[in-house]
Each structure stands twice: as C-alpha cells, then as structure tokens.
Amino acid sequence: MIETVELVQQEVNRLYKSHYGKMVSSLLYFSQSIDLESAEDLVQDAFTSAITNWRENGIPDNPGGWIFKVCRNKALNKIKQGEKVRGFFENEDFDAVETKRSESPIDDQQLKLLFACAHPDFSPKVQVVITLKYVTNLKVEAIAKILAMTIDGVDKLLLRARQKIRDEKILFTEPDLHFLKYRIAIVHKIIYLIFNEGYKSSWGKEIIREELCEDALLMNKALLESGVGNKETAALQAMMLFNAARFKARFGTEGELLDLEEQDRSLWNKELIMYASKFLSQSQGGEISSYHYEAAIAYLHCSAKNFKSTDWASISKLYHQLLENNPNPFVEMNYAIALYYAGQKKKAIDILNLLQQKPFLHQYYLLNAALGKINLLEGNYTKARGYFQKTLNQTDSPAEKEYIQKLMDGME
Amino acid sequence: MEKFLLLIRENIQAQLGKADEAFEDGIQEMTKWVEELAESGNYISGEPLQPTGKYVSKDYVLSDGPFIEAKEAISGYLFIQAQNLNQAASIAQSCPEVINGNIFIEVRPIISLDND
Q1: Count of structural domains within chain A
Q2: φ, ψ for residue A112 (rounded to 5)?
Q3: A29: domain range?
Q4: Residue at A326 is within a domain
Q5: Are residues A160 and A194 in the same domain?
Q6: Same-domain status, A50 and A128
Q7: Are A134 and A151 contained in the same domain?
Q8: Residue A190: closest CA among A246, A111, A247, A243
Q9: In the A/B pair of chains, how many CB contacts fall below 8 A?
Q10: For chain B, which domains are there?
C-alpha cells in the first residue's frame, strides 16, 4: 500500500513537471471565459483528483490523458452551458507524447510557451519566473528558493504577470514567425539567466541547482533542433556545456567550495567538453555575440591542463572584447582578475580599485573577495583581511563564508 | 534596446532618520538588484545623490534647496536599457526597495537622436 502511494506521488510529480504549463495553456485555448487563475486552479484540482483516484484504482494506462480529461470535464462544469468551446485535444496525441518523451522532453508546445514567456513587456526577472512556472513547470516554493525570493514575493509577481497574460492572451496565442525572430534574443537571455541561477556556487551542491542547469540546456537544445535556433543559440549551448562539464568538480568531498585552482581537473567531464566544442564550431561564421565570447572563455578554461598553464592572456583579451559591446562593471571585475593572472598585475589592481569606488560595486561581495585574494597573493595580509571581513558581512551563503574563512585562516 | 532614466524618489527626511542598519540593508538589496540587472544586460550606470544641493531660478539661488524639507525628492538615479517603456517599468517594479514601499521610481525614456 505504501508502495502504491509512493508510485502515485512519483507519477503525479513527473506529469506535473512535464505537463503543467501545457495543460494550463490548453484550458485557456479551450474556452474564452476561463482566466489564467481558474485554469491553474482547475489543473491543480485535476492533479489532486489523480492522487486520490489512483491510490484507489491504480495508475491508468495513459495517466497524462486521464488528467487532461479530468481537466476538460472540470472546465465544462465551470463554463456556461451552451457556450462555444474550441477543440481541446486537437494538438495532443498522448501516446505520441509518451513515446517521444525519452528523446526530447521539450516538445513544440513547450517551445511555443517559451516564446510566449519572452514577451518584451516583461522584465527579465518576470520572464524567468513565468518560464520556470509554465515551461519547466516548477512549483512556486521551488521558484522562490531558486531565485532567493519569498513565496509571497513570487506570488505577487505572478499575480501581476497573470493580469497581463490574460489581458493580452499571452500564453495561448501562438507567436507568429515574425515574432519568433524578434524574440529569440529574449529567449536566449531567459535560458542564460536560468542556467546562471543553477550554476551560482553560493548555493553549494544542491540537486535542484543541477536540474535547473539541465532544464536550461534542454530548452536550448530544443530550440536548436526545432530549426528556430541560430548561431547564437549554438554559442549559448557551447558556453553552458563547457561550464556544466565543471559542475561537479567545484565542490570538495565535504561539499565545500573549491576555487578554480583547487579543483581536481580529472573530474571535469571530458565528453561534455567535446560535445561543447562541437557547438562552438557550429556557432562560427556569423555575428559574434556575447555568448560567443563567454563560450570561448569557458573553452580556454576547460582546455587548460592546470591553473598555471591557463591562457590568461587570451582570456583577458576576450573579456576586453566582451566589454566593448556590453559595458558591465561586474564583467569588468572578471577582466581585471584575468589580467592579474596574465601578469598585468598593476593594471589589474588599478581597475579593481577604480571599481571599488563605484556606487553599488563597493558593496559587492565578490569584488571585495577578489581584492582580498589579490592582496593576499601580493603579501598585503592586513589589507587582505580587511576585504575578506567585508566579504563575510556581505554574503549569506554558508559555502562562501566557509571559503573566505579558509583563506583568512591560511594567513595566520 | 531603448534607454531609460530611472529617477529614484523618496522621503529624504525619513531616510535620514533611519537606523544605520536599516540603511545598510537597503543598500545591500539595491546592490543585489543592480547585479541582476547587469547580468540581464539592462544596467548601464547609476549613482546615489546627496540630500542637499542648490535650487536655482531666475531670481534666486536657494542653498540646500527645498530637497531636504520636501516630502519626496530625488535621491539617486539609474540609467538602464530595456526593450520598451513597459519593460523598463516592469524592471523598476522589481526593485526590492520599491516592493518594500521605501522608494518610488519615475521611469523616463531618453529621447533617441539617432535614426535607427
């Protein structure tokens, strides 16, 4: 009995993860009088019914179809009698979806949803939140955790977004081809931001983080395979794969944060690096985007035998080029660090000191951490300690605090 | 992408009366937000403003200006780029200090002089 309960829960979770957004958008398409909030309630109800029913009667042969049917019946009860409804299952062949699942977990309908979420009126943060909600089908609690927001904050943001989604029929009209071209840059940015959220080291070794990176990679892969993707998509894929290859080596056996110098490079996933290289060459021949530069930087890190032999000179040049088109003080910091290791120490320290005087930047924990590390390497222990102390006050992440503490202890 | 000036407005008297810690927390939150904006490619630059200054008109120059007595005055600015005015407003709305009700943001499009 306990087994059945668990199996049912697993199946429901799996379906939620793969179908939630699609079911919501189908309901919106089904009837004009259903708004987004009631559509989400209906889908939620259908999942709850599934849990109760399947525990009694076992999981049906076509569990996705079962839930869809319940959704439709609930919707029919809700809307006025005689109201005109549109076809519900027209684009949904469940058996096909089920068999296709293993090859490409993201289908065309999800891709359409992704483009719908890339509405240019939403801020990037809202775009990320609704993509996580309706394309990768995460629950509000998970989104809050990932984006370091409160559940209430995510709810409020969704509430405001829902209003617009309803008013402008955002989730259930198909963006036409003209829009696809215009929106692909926004879609890239959403995928990039989602990957970065998953990759941030401040979170330590959490499974949910790795899954987020996988989701970003899957969405981007679907983009490439659908033919909508372009050279920039390939560059983004290469960049994400090079970084994903290093994912596991960033933490030690105790889950502690390891910097690039300390990482065991034999743990880097060579197959992923090779796979990434393919996308990097595929991305050549068009305009050079910021993803191209970032992919090239990640490639140089991945192809270095050890920290010392890293081609810091080329990396700093790439950062310089990246900054030319996208001036960004946070990237400038990475440029300075690369310059330092490339031997241009004075220039590096000058840039970091200048950044330190900029508004917002002097409060930025990574800048203080970088200044601390460089002062430590230069033997200025008192200065280093001051910067590390600032860093400790500015980050809440236990993994990062521990790492900084380790550097401070090393100076004793 | 179009450019926008976000004018940060707040009750400066209330701001001055705040405990240092609350003030620091506000800055930390703003820094995190600015980092997000840089990551998404929207941030260009920004600076806080002193609560005092001079107010100039045809007939007189007022030292200190009316700023410090004013119920609401500009305490800083952010220069950003965004897809359109709605997105710029949505970005401003995501500012944690706006969400907390501590500041207002006025979003003003910059008139673009080039023809592209």
Answers
A1: 3
A2: -65, -40
A3: 4-103
A4: no
A5: yes
A6: no
A7: yes
A8: A111
A9: 62
A10: 2-109 (3.30.70.1060)
Give, as one character, the DSSP assignment of residue A257: B
**In tens digits, what is the pLDDT along chain A, a chain of 412 residues?**
568 888 999 999 999 988 898 888 888 877 777 888 888 999 999 999 999 999 999 999 889 889 988 988 888 888 776 666 665 544 444 444 443 333 455 677 788 889 989 999 999 999 999 999 999 999 999 999 888 888 998 998 898 888 888 777 776 666 666 677 789 999 999 999 999 999 887 767 777 788 899 999 999 999 999 888 999 999 999 999 999 999 889 988 888 889 899 999 999 999 999 999 999 999 999 999 999 999 999 999 999 999 999 999 999 999 999 999 888 999 999 999 999 999 999 999 999 999 999 888 888 899 999 999 999 999 999 999 999 999 998 888 888 899 999 999 988 7
The residues, ordered by sequence, that sit 6+ positions from A362 with a Cβ below 8 Å of its Cβ are A356
C-beta atoms of A363 and B87 within 8 A: no
B99 chain-A contacts, CB cut-off 8 A: 153, 156
Is residue B46 less than 8 Å (CB to CB) from chain A?
yes
**Nearest CB to A330 within list B30, B35, B46:** B35
Distance between A78 CA and the closest CA of chain B, angstroms = 33
Handedness of CA A231, A236, A239, A242 (dihedral sign): negative
| Contact check, Cβ <8 Å, A196/B38 | no
Whether the CB of B29 is below 8 Å from some CB of chain A: the reply is no
Q: Min CA distance, B70 vs chain A (Å)?
A: 25
Q: Do A387 and A406 fall within a single domain?
A: yes
pTM value is: 0.87
Measure CA A179 to chain center.
23
Please say whether the beta carbons of B16 and A330 come within 8 A: no
Q: Which of A223, A244, A273 is the last residue of a domain?
A: A223
What is the rounded distance in angstroms from the CA atom of residue A258 to the CA atom of residue A249? 8
Residue A259 domain-assigned?
no
Question: In this structure, are A90 and A148 located in the same domain?
Answer: no
Q: Are residues A218 and A116 in the same domain?
A: yes
- Minimal Cβ distance to A121: which of B44, B47, B86: B86
- The reply to whether A94 and A12 lie within a common domain is yes
Residues of A in contact with B39 (CB under 8 A): 193, 196, 330
Please say which residue of A70, A103, A136 terminates a domain.
A103
For residue A299, is it within any domain? Answer: no
Whether chain A has a CB inside 8 Å of the CB on B47: the answer is yes
Please provide the DSSP assignment of A291-320 as one string: HHHHHHHHHHHHH-SSSTTS-HHHHHHHHH
- C-alpha torsion sign, points A237, A239, A245, A251: negative
B84 contact residues in A (CB cutoff 8 A): 120-121
In a domain, A247, yes or no: no
Cβ <8 Å between A121 and B48: no
Q: Measure Cα distances from A341 to A261, A297, A299, A374, B47 in Å.
A: 12, 14, 17, 10, 31
Please check whether residue B42 touches A, CB under 8 A.
yes
**Best residue of B34, B37, B83 to probe chain A, by most A CBs closer than 10 Å:** B83
For residues A23 and A47, membership in a common domain is answered with: yes
* Cβ–Cβ gap B38/A328 under 8 Å: yes
